[in-house]
Amino acid sequence: VIDLFQAYPVLFAPIRPLPVVTMPLGDALFRTLARPVVCDIDYPPFDRSVMDGYAVRASDVARAPLNLTIIGRVAAGTESTEGLRAGTAMYVGTGAPIPTGADAVVRVEQTEIAADGREVRIRSSVLPGQFITPKASYARAGQIVLKAGQGLTPLEIAVAAAAGAATVTVYRRPTVAILSTGDELVDIGTVPKGAQIRNSNAVLLNAAVRAAHAEPLMLGTAKDDPAVIRAGIEAGLSADQLCITGGVSVGERDFVPRVLREMGAEFHIEKIKIKPGRPILFAGFPRGPLVFALPGNPVSAFVGFELLVRPALAALEGRPGRIPRPFPAVLRGSLPAAADRRTFWPAHATVQDDGQWCAEALPWGGSGDPFGMAGANALLTQPPHSPALQSGGSVSILLLERV
Ligand code: AMP
Ligand code: MG
Q: Are 149 and 33 in contact (CB under 8 A)?
């Protein structure tokens, strides 16, 4: 039995990133770069106007107000052939190249047209360089603008696009085989009879895997029978990761650990000091998938996924070390005492007007109760043996991704 935060080095140690693929940038959202992105050009590629205004020589307008002769106009996307001489100005649009000879831009708001449009009145002086973005001031040709290991959100997609990376080399997405075990399980389209229970975990894990930007591979439901479980696991051996729920504890029909061992899996973690979710098993097949066997209770399965499976998927995809880090919040409502292990509760967290996070545990019947998870945007968590708390007490929370 290992402490949660001591489990992470053990979790990451056997994980190697998946092979890489090269793909169009537009398809690479939420992927992870396996190679850096290098800017192919100086950016901006030319001295560029930040404002709509008049390109001038700063020394010409030092004694403003005064008039300058307008000798031309440069819109974004055009280039002026003419240079600026003493006593002249050229209209420039935002994003237009600065004509040679000019060293500053006066904003259009600081000007007015004079002499029937042949001259512009400059109302105030400007410093050299004012409202000009010099060529290559944002990035130079050959400069690394995104490092390997960087995740691609819309922000980095824009960076890669500006850098000329029409294709990027990223890690392949992990495939995750999902196997449910339990004699009592029936599909969700069925009304359970007698001792049956709906298999909500298969759907939970399918959704959680997709939310983590990985690819689920559904293996169906196995009876609590070693041969059937073994056949299920064999069907998942081609995946990068295998997630099994149920049958992982100490019950007389909990066959999953035994079957995994018989099949030659190497066990890395056998139990973690958390509630819910203690009997979590993390193993791996030599030249085969990583294996997580999660307890069957839906909330245990979810907590195990968030705390361990999701960081493991990130590591497979080239983002190692994604350890969930709880941060402080103020409790709203009351909280029962924690167990002898780090304890988690589905919670709703908000930011108060003063910027302080506060969190409320949702009404919840325990690890077998899926319904208390609805609307949770956080897991409230307390260290082992934490006492019961009243409103205003100090707690820790982990935020969950939500829509
Ligand atoms: P187990 O981990 O097999 O001991 O199961 C613990 C509890 O979770 C039992 O009440 C099971 O009926 C329930 N359970 C197991 N698998 C699932 C599943 N796939 N969906 C919903 N509940 C499950
Ligand atoms: Mg069971």
A: yes
104-144 pLDDT tens trace: 999 999 999 999 999 999 999 999 999 999 999 999 999 99
Instruction: Name the residue with the closest Cα to ligand 1, atom 11.
Output: 296
Q: Rounded to two decimals, what is the model's pTM?
A: 0.93
Residue 271 CA: distances (Å) to CA of 3, 179, 284, 325: 9, 20, 15, 20
Cα(248) to centroid(ligand 2), Å: 8
Nearest CA to ligand 1 atom 14: 296
CA of 318 to the centre of ligand 1 (A): 32
297 Cα nearest atom in ligand 1: 8
Tens-digit pLDDT profile for residues 245-262:
999 999 999 999 999 999
Angle at 186 between CA 182 and CA 192, to 5 degrees: 115
CA distance 40 to 264: 49
Strands (E), 237-388: 241-245, 266-269, 274-275, 281-284, 290-294, 327-332, 342-351, 357-361, 378-382
